[in-house]
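Colleagues,

Please find the record for the two-part complex below.
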Amino acid sequence: MIIKLTGGVVYDPANNVNGKALDIYIKNDRIVSKQEVTQVDQEIDLRGKIVMAGAIDMHTHVGGGKNNIARILLPEDHRSDPVAATELTRSGTGRALPSSYVTGYRYAEMGYTSVFEPAVLPVNARQAHMEMGDIPILDKGGYVLMGSDDYFLQMMTAKKDQQAINDYVAWTLNATKGIGVKVVNPGGINAFKFNQRQLDLDENNQFYNVTPRDILSVLATAVKELGISHPLHVHGCNLGVPGNKDTTLSTIEGIGGLPMHLTHIQFHSYGVEGDFKFSSGAAEIAEAINKNKNITVDVGQVMFGQTVTASGDSMKQHANHKHASPNKWVCMDIECDAGCGLVPFKYRDQNFVNALQWAIGLETFLLVEDPWRIFLTTDHPNGAPFTSYPHLIRLLMDRSFRNDMLKTIHPEAQKMTTLDTIDREYSLQEIAIMTRAGAAKLVGLENRGHLGVGAWADITVYTPDDNREKMFEKPDYVFKDGELVVRDGEIVHIKWGTTHIVTPEFDRGIEKDLAKYFSRHMTMKMGNFKISNDEITEDGRNTLTVQPTQRGVL
Amino acid sequence: MTTKTEVPSPFCGIGTDDLVLNVDGKSINVLANGCAINTPAFEQAIGDMVPRVNGEEVALEVAVAQAADILKASDQTLIGGCATDVNGMRALVALADHNGAVVDNVAFNTTRRNILALQDSGWMTTTLAEVKNRCDLLVVIGTDIEKVSPRFFEHFIWNESPMFLEASTQCQVVYLGKEPSGQSAVSPVGVRPQVLPCADEDLPEVVAVLRALVKGNNISHYEVDGLALTDLQALAEQLKEAAYGVVTWSAGSLDFPHAELTVQVICELVKDLNEKTRCSGLPLGGSDGDQTANQVTAWLTGYPARLSFARGFPEYDPYLYDGQLLLENKEVDALLWVHDFNSKALPPEGVVPTIVIGRSGMRFEKEPAVFIPVGTPGIDHCGHAFRMDGVVAIRLQKLRESGLPSTAQVLTLIDQAQ
């Protein structure tokens, strides 16, 4: 099957195409050159339309136990957004944490073709993959959460060498089918189990005598030395704590040039200025990001309304439970592995702190200069559900709209932000970098996120509209692997994406000690812990795609 | 004959995975690490192999077609049991979605006691490996653990080498309410659990008093049969002093009206304790796929496993969609019963046409309209099941070639034919 997409205005930053009218040829699931095509089976006239690769959400909570707890916790939220079945699509529910099918449909309807779950607890990875296995259309993958598990911390205390850590990290990635490594409140989830309520960057986990800084350094080195494309994905210390910008700056400084991704940076960019002792640290943080080319960030933008915060950071979630709205919340310690906390939250534009959080996120977007190193997220569902992305894009692309919105928030928050002095408006090319080319590069996806010859044909077509929210919420066409899945913002065809993983090499000898550890201390044998390939592929819908590692290249 | 080791079990809810079995053709013998729940469940011989329609043996296609006809003719179908593996639940929800059926897990009336508490105020819980390595005080409320999980203490309390205790014998065990029926709560050095006995119907009050004491409220006088205020005061102090207390209960054992309120008080008590020390709840359960049912429906629909697709989208109501009541009130006109773990788990008897997708070997008082015997996940085919703590999913193995189809296969065929 050959499809010709004729004359669309293409934004394809990976190939340096910036708003040029081009023809694109799709042969089966890939983009091919004109020379490879002898006949065209279907031609779609895209003159006047805007063409980008399918969008990639590199940080969104779409699979795993904490999501399911949040779902069960909030039936009233689902009741407000029932989704009926159609001839083609399955029923479900939407809102803050949609059901898996609805997650797939709604992402695809916005032009997204890949999503990455950023907090896969190794012991819960099987569930995460099963949930993601029920997300139609999209490709998916997960970052495996490490750094608070007792095996790792025992290695740290025992001062095991970097090679041993590398082997354990690689083993974990293989056993749980991850594509990256995440760390959440390094050592802090563990410390909370020992009743430690606070853990600063240079403070010891009191049981293991290990600091978050040590953990970050060792894990970031492991990720680099294993040649994993995606840098260590860091949810830092002191999430949400006023004054945490200093922790964040010190984290950037302390990593010593190693690649590091700081996630939902907005929640880590707070100062203590002003009458309310809460202020924006976005300018300082952005400056540090601009200066340190080894750092990438996603924002975790806050949007106003009801959502639920779902995090592995049980320590901080417990500390924040008094903000729960509605007043119900869950914290969980999990299997000497990690933990989680679910706190429903209602961000209000007339609440000073929430309003300023909103402004801090936007300041960060606008002050970080390099769109290849900043990514568009709301940390779904923590800052807001992913369905708010088109609105967020409008805020970034439309200064007068942004300033109009700014005028509606808490007046004291308006005074505490520099937002109205920032002229920058994101261009379409910059949006394409943040949500496509840059994201594919960051996650390490071969032949995704671009529209060059050889790329997988994940393509989104929009009708230009000055109201960018309208434009981005309803694409004309979305192709996934060359198949038309969305037409005029509606699902027209169901297919199933692949699960992206990495399989770095490691010394198999480490399994001897691990097997002993599992038998003595865990509640599952090591052999039963490891996820086999067929667990993901046996349903006939899902596949595994091994992304290359670059051992020795970096 | 082959010997299989490290075999996981879907039956006991605690994800036992150290079973050693002999598989000889179609017969299975538990060689080591069995228990009163797992051993008979694994060793049960295969019964029927052939589906039946109105008692007559038929080919699978015929039974599937008949089942589909019943579903097509039904104005409101109830899918009961819902005791299967992850793939079975996926197929079940797909069928329900297409059919507009009500889905009701057989254990929901007991699970509801936990879910209502969770949905009203949340909780703080832990999982089995944390218990195994950290728990220095186990408070068991209203539950005879050995009856629910025969190997609980052996697996998770009396360990050889807990990581964060000097020895497992450091763990104190207190029973509040029911007394233990066996000896498994006695420590390896012979320390018997402390028992603060009271009747089930007194538990709501006793637990409320305990919470008040934990909060430091002044209670000058309280007495209930067998239990003195000083006992509860001492327990409150123990909880406050423990480094990692665990309060456990089995919702199924709290069999009195509005037990959800008692679960809620337990959960709030745990939260109160966490203002100063660490303490976690540990709801037991998870046998025969009840956690699996709730987990799968949660990600597929947003709701736990008592919901209706009658209006074309999932709706959850913990009371309205009680399958037993729907049958009694004649609000459903067909029953699809799914239970592939336990051949004694029979559908409720009633007048509506009944399709049973059941573990081979079911014996019916009243023959259903359609019976399709299926294999058991973890014995006859691979699969996945969730453990009681909801976080750990276990990979179930195929142990023998029985020729029995899986529930997922059968439900998918019926779905395609309906």
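Chain B has a mean pLDDT of 96.

Comments are welcome before we finalize the supplementary table.
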